[in-house]
Predict the structure.
Amino acid sequence: MTATNDSHLLLRAFCDELARCGVSGAVTSPGSRSTPLVAALTADRGFPVYSQIDERSAGFFALGLAKATGRPAVLACTSGTAAANYLPAVIEAYEARVPLIVCTSDRPPELRAIGAGQTIDQVKLYGDSVLSFTEVGVDALTAETARWIRSLACRAAWTALGRRRGPVHLNFPFREPLLPATPLPEPTAFEIGRDDRRPWTARAQAFGDPLLAAEMLAPIVATAPKGVVVAGRVEGALNGPRFAAAVASFCAASGWPLLADPLSGARSGEQSVAHYDALLRAEPLALSARPTAVLRIGDMPASKALRGWLADLDAVQVLIDPEMAWQDPAMMADLVLDAQPAAVLELLAESCAVGDAAWATGWQQADAFAHEAIDEVLGEQLSEPAVARQLGAQLPADANLVVASSMPIRDVESFFANRDEPIRVLSNRGANGIDGTIATAYGVAAASDGPTVLMIGDVAFAHDVGSLLTARRLAVPLTIVLIDNQGGGIFDFLEVSEHDRFYEQHVLTPTGLKIDAVAEAFGLHLLEASTLDEFAAALDYSVGSDGTQLIHLRTDRAENVALHKQLWKSVAVALAR
């Protein structure tokens, strides 16, 4: 295999996956830049391929295929105005809710806007008349990109066939040579898709029929005594006590351990493994804890260790995705199920049998070891992990905890222990940015009956300091726990911290903000805490008080990095005993 063949091998996998997803056919039009795509489509993939000279006709021809069959039709054209001629058919498909997969070939980025022939701006060419747009890079073949291209084909097909059917747009920038430099070899191990010609990721819609969803999942649960549940954030009405109770009931009935992000509101119950992040950083457990099935619900938790572990598993992975958000960054999901999770889990809990008792006990014992090791290392000293742990233990059940992105949300995930009644944890993890965190907390406080606490670092605090005007304008009660380590502490954990030339000024960005002056300017009640006991007392005083309470905690970044390393090492030692 040569490097110049990589794009053709990826396109072969892409078209193979389209066939597995049951497309009704493909329609091509003449042109040069589309050669790689046409070559892959016409290589006997198991669906008919039609030729139309004019792209406008091709678009409506594909529309007819999709209308007649109820299955997506694929369009493939060259670059430039050829793609623009699809627009009338794309608009009709959108308005009439007809599934199309529109594949436009394009010049690579280095040839755009410099006078290269047959090159126009094709990025989001069809505007709001498509359900999704993806710029598709097909330059390098790796195990990851092979999974990604298959997952992309499935996502395109299932999006086109979603609750609101319609067209999707994939834009393929192709570099020369446009034909393989040498004959393509037989597929390697990581190019081959699922067994039995199954789609890489199947999708089933059962939102209004939890019984159907439960029937689909029951055989997977029955044949996987060693399974795990990974619970992430589920938004809005789908979240809450019913969801947490349903997750706990299913895990108790099946014996599957529960790895629950605090944002899920489900970190409770005997099966809950609170310290999964620490455990999966410890090699002994990571090597032995290999489930045969994973049931994922909602968003992917932030834990890098968990994400890496899931990506490396040889297990059936099912994602219950009630919002159709396709939360699968590692492209490992076998099935994405559009269903209401609480109702499905309640039905499964009624019918499933307890799995491998030793499997569940092993996880519970490991979690207990990790809990003890973390407590021993943290002791009574004030530290960033200890602050997160204290919040999880001390806040009342009716509290709302808003957590900033970067280190605060990671410490909450890593160090929150189990609770009988989980508190509500919220965070802006859609785009994972730090902007608007204070304003978000005030919004939560304004709409909530219980007390609201914000856990935030000094950079995120400075970024949204103007939102403190709310303290005087609306008089909404809020407790702000400000962890002040003079910069973006999360970056000290990354390789970029070794680049002294620009690191502090351009990455770490210490603000130099005088917190006492900020408190005075915005009318905040400032409480300084330098020990863990002082923090606990300040938190006890602040929660439920009127106005904005600002608890200021100073920590040391270097000590924080060293402490995290000590914590992970301590857990690994405890597990190895």
Notes: The domain at 379-576 is CATH 3.40.50.970 (Rossmann fold). The chain is about 40% helix and 15% strand.
